[in-house]
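G., before I forget:
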Amino acid sequence: MVKEIIVLRYGHRPVRDYRVTSHCCLVARAFGADKVEVIGEKDESIENTVNTMNKQWGKGAGVEFFDSWRKRITHYKKKGFTSVHLTMYGLPVQETEQAIRKFNKLLVIIGSQKVEKEVYEMADYNVSVTLQPHSEIAAMAVFLDRLQEGKELAKKFGGAKISIEPVAKGKKVNKK
Amino acid sequence: MVKEIIVLRYGHRPVRDYRVTSHCCLVARAFGADKVEVIGEKDESIENTVNTMNKQWGKGAGVEFFDSWRKRITHYKKKGFTSVHLTMYGLPVQETEQAIRKFNKLLVIIGSQKVEKEVYEMADYNVSVTLQPHSEIAAMAVFLDRLQEGKELAKKFGGAKISIEPVAKGKKVNKK
């Protein structure tokens, strides 16, 4: 059963990629990942967004920037992580999820710009979510939901100052 | 059983929202929606992206721009659609999906900027995908995957010039 999930976002350009990378970080956090690592130029606006979220909405995955994807993948391989690269060229998620669910520690790699060939080679699994081009944000969300069989949807975030009470109409927000 | 899915994207600003709105359109298409309607200023760059995708990768959902979300929601209500607004304030997807799956025609509303109160009132269902702030792209993908119980993952797109043959490593692309 999966106990630890690290998301590695391959590529980030400050300003230009701010919104897409912040969607990636917030989705990883909301869907129960333990940490996000972004390969690219350090971007304080992303760090601030994620830190603010963790302060307000409860403690979830933080974000850290690194220069080399090769070093980070190698680092996690040495620590016993199984690496899953999400790509539309890979094997369908519905055929691979059951096998992947058995590992304890997962490194989930998601691209942005063109991903180098070596990533496909280094990854233990290359997994597709549909065989169509769409969005790394969507692919990661669906993969994490299937991997955890929906258990992540009800995850509680410790130390939250704001929390939501689900309602059929309107908004109900509890503040501490 | 759901037979027709229209995605209504509430809000779009040209240039600034290009990437996020195009992710929304491509995810809706890849996950089997029949059409995307965007409320906002007509944006040819989005139309071109979606049209090119449909020509190259096979016929899926197209996109059309409209001025008034109120008129479009009313239009679909009159045509017998059940409307589902995805919002983190709504009832959890895991508790509502079974009921929603029974309808034939669905209008799935996804926000971007702040959504007006009236949308919450007009929607037949307000549905949350986790109770955390994250991404409308991710919320839509997970909702559409759960709604269709994964059947959309293997959808074939007619008339494709390019298609992918899933492989464990690397890329295998078939071109006509």
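Chain B touches chain A through 55 residues (CB under 8 Å). Strands of chain B lie at 4-10, 35-39, 62-66, 82-92, 105-110, 125-128, 162-164, 173-175.

More on Monday.
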